[in-house]
Amino acid sequence: MPGRAPIKIFSGASSMYLAEQIASSFGQKLGKSTLTNFSDGEFQPSFEESVRGCVVFIIQSTFPPTDNLFELLLMIDAAKRASAYKVVAVMPYFGYARQDRKDKPRVSIGAKLVTDLLSAAGVSRVMTMDLHADQIQGFFDVPVDHLYASSIFVPHIKEMNLENLVIAAPDMGGTKRANAYSRFLKCEMVICYKLRKKANYVNEITIIGDVKDKDVVIVDDMIDTAGTMVLAADLMTQRGARSVRAVATHPVLSGPAIERIEKSSLTEVIVSDTIPVKKDSPKLKVLPVAGLFARVIDKVYNYRSISSTFIE
Length: 312
What we know:
29% of the residues lie in helices and 26% in strands. It is of the alpha/beta class. The strands form three sheets. The protein has a seven-stranded mixed beta sheet with strand order 10-9-8-11-12-13-14. It is globular.
């Protein structure tokens, strides 16, 4: 019967801010756990309450440093060794997802390695949001609940009541996501074609489609150095766009990202809180995902369909 095993929700150190909100939205307190740090840099997580026979949800985004991923693996292992009934890894941001294929000789497929590590640790199920590539779900041998941030972004975009809305894909790989947004918002779509000769650096960008007198919203799964977003926004502004906004699920925001955004022609950058935003900016707006994760956790725990939570 659904709910036959008690549920407990725990958090890794880096996602405590989000886990507390998820647990509160779910309607229970976050489980007690500690993280012991040793002088040589090693650490050991520990559950400070029994998890025997429980369905354990462990919340941890695996953004850098790699310690965040390893802490999650240790917590999964600890829960299994403490006789948890099932262990579900809730990874709002799935790190190493950009390494989803061999794009040149003699490189690793980091996303596949991470899925193997999670399986080796003893995970029963994985819950994540906006993977960089959908095919990563196929790397797992356990069920994957892939949530879409469009569930919170699409209603927000509708509330802005932009007169001449156009959705933009930041690159060719983002056309499927942008098409889904344009379909639900019943508006046109344009595509950015970028030439990248090395990681985190865009050499050239071209806009395919008309943006003159349009209110453009660029949608992407993450915003890292903001190089692509800023180049695209500035080019769209030069081509007569009335306003340019960006929507990105995961605010990696590394290096000069914040400074680039503030100096750019971007009106606003809307992100979720799957990763904590370390520096405030008047151009940044953060939307919470805790309510969505809490609803899906409840549905998964009670063996109910989660498809009703999907927009995309």
